[in-house]
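Progress narrative, work stream C.
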Amino acid sequence: MAGMEFEYDEEGGTFYFFLLSFMALVLVPATYYLWGTGESKEDPEKSRRVCQCDPCKMKKQKLKSKEPINRLKRRAIKTGLLIGWALLAVVAYKASQVELDFAEFDPYNELQIDRGATSREIKKAYHKLSIIYHPDKDTGDSQRFMKITKAYKALTDEEARKNWEEYGNPDGPGATHFGIALPKWIVEKQNSVWVLGLYALVFMVVLPVVVTILGSRQGGTDTRHIEIHGTPLYFIFLHKTPNMMLKRVLMVLAASFEFNRQYNQEVVERPSDNEQIPRLMKNLPYLNEKNKERPLCYLYSIKARCLIHAHLSRLELPQNTLEPDKDYCLKKCLYLLNEMINIVAQLVTMAHAGRVSKMPRLSTVENIMKVSQMVVQALWDNKSSLLQLPHISEDQLRHFVTRKRNIRNIRQLVGMREDERRALLRTLADDEYTNVMNVCANLPYIEMDVKTEVIDEEDPTITAGSIVTVTVRLKRQNMAVLLNLEGKTEKPEKPEEIAAEEVEEEEEEKPPTEEQVAARKPKVWEKQKKKKGKAKTGKKKPVKPVVPLKKPMTATTLTPTGTPTASGDKEEPKDSNPSTPNGGVPHQRKGRHRASYHGSTNDDSDTDSAYSDSADELADQVKQQQQSDNNEEDDDDDWMKFQEEAKKENMLETKSKETHVVHCPYYPALKYEWWWLYVADKKNQLIISAPLQVCSLMSEEEIQLKFSAPYKPGIYHYTVMLRSDSYLDFDQSQNIKLDVKEAKKIESHPQWEISDDDEEKDADDEDGSESDISDYDESDAD
């Protein structure tokens, strides 16, 4: 390459192509993702199943009250996209009008002749055009004359013609020009300030703002939503009171610095609070406002506590003052409660490490989780969980517990027969009853399967201090499977009918007993005999255990005759023959002995021993080969298992946190079903594994909980707990039993135990051997 030259676009023509490509790369994906962000049409079938109670309608209207801002935002986005596409069209038009100054050199075109012209025609055309365009003529054009001369040379000179065919230029390869598709005014000195300002605006203002907005939209239960000043507060109170009661959890929650205007400028303080808060406190009997403990006695803490208690009591508040404050407070509560649970897990870990003296109890974590359920459903813990359903009031609950029935939760209500349920809810209208059933049909129905194992060890036995893995499989269904609304299950029958059918089936399957046979006979003495015989036969005879047949080995062995046989087959005696019973000597064997009688009598025994030795060696080799193959297969299985575990962990991290929507008409925001999963020791009130929040349970999920086994051998009984963060009385638990064995002792190998004397002796031996070698070399040299 002769050389390279860089040049900017003087006329700005190529800049249009660059701008056109950049705008297309931005506008196409932006239009795809942002144009369809408007309201989607609701499915009529889905809207029919949505709750239509008055609190849900009010919540929907409240959420829609923010729509004007969203509509304005969507309109601004669409307007910006339209302007961008209009600019793209203008730039495309400008680019189409740009005339390229680069044109391919064509000597035939310059001489105005055909490509099949002869040399005579070429000379004639050159002579004709040179007369017209010669610079000395009146019609002369120097540039045109140079092109004509260059074309004539390219067609008549062999070397020039070859250069033109290879490089497109009769003069051969020239300098390579690289054009930058930017106008030249960008690099001019007088415009440098504006260019630097544009770079600073894009990279120091626009880019951080976009990243911040995208990060805030991803939202989640992490410490990003927690003020840095609130975390030490939780550490102090949870360490101070390891066994924290539910009312105190509410007090600590209300004392969070998220509700203090000194740390959070979003908090609104109004002069009307001095009148409305004391009036509200009179209707809250469990407020405990006389507590003098700091910061529980501060004004912001008392106000937040009043708002939370009013929400749990479902009291109406002034719409323009306390109601917005309550909504803001409730939206922060779930993030704060999740942070409290994380701190409890940290304190448990620190207590095991000996860094803190007090360990939080299991009841503390359960009370924090229960507060989350209470906040979402706006219910106290001593209220019935049936109040989570629409149109159900406390006056109707007295009909749920009577002498005939005992309905205390939603599961029992769903398990009733349709006619009995409708009779129980006879005070509701048909549309109200349908609404109740639709809400029940969308509630979660969880099936939990638990498996305990030790994955990282070759021996699956649980030993002291080993890492125990609890694999929990969760299957989430709608409670409609119990209501037969989706046609998946049949209508549940009465327990009495089921029991009667089971008894009838058992009687049909059983053969007639001796008592039944004896009852048909009228003789008394025969009955007594039958009874006596029954007593004998009633005792079960000891059944001999069935010995399983051993699997035939695939290894081959050599028989004394030198023929290979499968070792799994039964070996026949040396002198046995199917035609000669009792091991009689066959005629062939006799002939063999007669033929070898005159020889050495030890030949047969030597050959038999040789055959047996070779057979044993072959069998040992086959066994070793099988063991090595099995070890390789086990290693492959372990590697595949570890890869699957890593994939599952990555899938859990990348899954969406949007699951089924929770029915919570009193909670001011949209809420999705999330669950807490952990292992606990209920007997000793201990937390065994840190609570794991499951945020992606749409239909099925597999979660692994890991913890260290106790250091003392024995049998331990733990409980795997699954608790909802949104619904009351939907918790599940399953007991697990751990048989912890004593840890295996590490065997000491003799080759590892090398004393200092042995090391010195080995060093002396090495020095002696080196001196001998040197002496030997010197003697050879001599």
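Work stream C, second folded protein:
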Amino acid sequence: MWSNYDEDLSQNEFFKQIKENHADILEKAAQEGWIVCVPRKGILKSEDFSMQLILDHILIPNSEDHYTTMNKKDVQLNKRCLILDQNNIFHTDVEVLFEETHYIEKSVKYLVWCVNSPLFLRRTRKHSLTPVVLTSIQDCIDFLYLEGFGRNLLESIQNLCVKFWTTHNNEFEMETLQSQKDSIGNLYSQCLQLCFKSDIIRDKCDKNINYLDNFKLSIETYMQYCLGKKLMYSVNTLEHFTDCIVNKIIRNSFNVGLEDLNISIDLNELIIDAKYEISRINSFITVLDKINCLSRIFNIFNNKTLKDNQTFYVTSDDYLQILIYLILKTNNPNWVANLTYIKEFQFTDNSQTNFFVVNLEAAISFIKSNEFLNTKKSSCDNTIFSKLYNKFKNKQNIAELYKLMQGEKAQLCHPLCSCPKCETKKPHDKPYKILNNLNQNFLIIASMENQLDFLEFLLTLDYEIDFQDDFGKTALHYAAEIGLQDILMLLINAQANVNILDNDKNTALHLACDRGHDNCVKALIYSSPFVEINLQNTSGETPLFLATRWGYFDIIKILLENGASVCIKNNRDLSIYKLSPNLYITKLFKQFGKQKSNNIIKEVINSTKTQDIILNISEACSNKLLTGLQQQGLTLGTPAKSPNELKKLDLLFKAIINNDLPLSCFYLGYNSNTLDYDNTKCHPLCTCNKCSNNEDDSVLASNITLDKFNVNMCNIEGFTPLHLAAKYGRTEILRILLDSGAPLNVCDNKTFYTPLHLAVMFQRVQTVKELLKCGNCNVDAQDVKGNTPLYYACVRNSNNLKIIESLLQNGADCQKRNCKEQTVLQICEVKNLFRVCRMLRESMGYPALAKLDKACSISNENYFDDDVNGFEFL
């Protein structure tokens, strides 16, 4: 029905018993729509079969999800589980494994549910007198229920556990391991004393040592079950630092394969089953269940017949290597905490389980030693690509490399021709022609192998820095994933796109956080002002989610300090608080949640043809932006309507970046003659030869004007040609765009940057002046964080006072508050930017304070530097 479990019910002894001896029940079930429940094979013994048990497994529908057995017992179906006796707080849920339809005749049929365990199994006193092996919490509950003559004993133990958490509510997680162990040991003693008040139980324990061991194990296991996951959470808090170290090693071991640990490839199918089993270890609450999980993993490999009909006899060394591989390939964030929990909170002596605990401890110790990391494979194999790469990476035979990169020149109709015939001749993407089988070029491989000099050389060859391989990853992705900070810094300085997504929609920041490279996280956040901290991948998870899952405390703190949201939920509707592995991280979330992220919301800007952009900003700021966007006169660009338009826009962007004015005019749809043409006459009625020729040329020029380009067209991120011209200081192109009707106050759809913002941020003085000449330029336009161009001029360009002066002369408001309710003047005062403060106060009309600032700046010029490096965006 819902599970992967399967069996042939015709061979099930319980079902055969019903078909052979109770055919009348099956006929009635077919007529009335009853459901026959059959416990899975091996769960019942033949002596358990009784008429009462059979009647308990025939369900009569009352409503959609409610049933009554033939013994008048209520059963409810919830999702894929049957809930028995809801009034009992110790009721058990029985999973429905699958369903089948069986036929008595061609048209007479009934429904059969295969269930994981029997419904309402009646246990008799004779069962308790036989030796019992307890393997799960359910076995322990059944044992105590029988020996305690009902639920009273279970409820008494549960009450003790509830009282324990009431008295240890706040301080238990912060106690030492020995203190926690002593407290739980005292609780265990209280539970035993409570049970031994019964003379019958005490007498049985005196007579049967096996019974005493089972009774103590049941008390311990049920006590841990009642304490719940909070006990494991406390151990996670204690071992958070060691688990963080182990997790970083595990997350960076993705290249380790079976052959690296001397594991036979024939065991691959068994390892798949073992992976599923070991991935469930955190779903178990008690020590007994966790140990039996390890036991089942061992039994998967013990004396198994392989494909070649050979029996595999597992040795201790074999099992240890297999266990190491399973730990490395399982996404479990708290192996050290699990080991501590199993070792320290098992109060009953069980020598049979020591083998599994010792092997788990040995596997974790081996992983902590980092020895297996030496098995990392080379990025290049023995192919033509690798031979060429090895030939060129030492920067030898550079002439050959240049020749290889250039290729043959194509003969086109004319230099700018784009007809189908010429398109096939063009050497498309020549620098990326040399690729390996994963579509990776030299730039990516050099980044992966930490070849800093060779990478720097390749960047001079006009390689596309954001080239993506088959996985959608760029060189920046791999540098962040491997943890190569120097490579990362070089790529960022070369204008690599820090927000580009791979096939799983992970940015470089996602990968750095997932692998635990705090140095790379700092490089991405502090070196690139455009990094998006709250982008979500295909699982709906931000970098903060990944860092939280693996317990990287330092990375979490960096992300929170730089605006990471704690209010986003992933695709499973889980918040960051639900994933918090320990108390220290939870406290960090609460601290930043109150200070910065309490009112964080998601705001989606929908545009007709562009992707949805999620913004995480404070509630007060979002209200100002959403209601004040139109009031500020800010507009959004027009999305490209087709791939051809997007391609043409991309070509225009490249021409603007390269400062190619003729080519830019061509893409904009202007003939260069029309731009340079001067049609002024000697006087309005002049008919001389010169004026007559100009008039004829004017008619001719008007006839050859090309199709005009939509100057307000934007790419996916919302940037228009005017943004690019302002960013790179292309003043001539900017004038043409403005004359063509480009909106001056257009903003992108992520950061709300206007062209003036970008011109100020990149210190384009002439461009700033050109923009300010336009009368409708909004000098106080606010971006997504509420910052105006004056803010960036003061904080980023405090040594270049010309931009600040131009903004102030054009009416920039230094008292305007951003989303943090801070003014530019307040920020400059905090950063000790005395010269800037003086200019701001002079513009406000405070000459006395300006003189004081001047005196301060002179007296402190040897101690303060107005140039603030590594500034933080507010």
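Residues 9-115 form one domain. No further action is required on this item.
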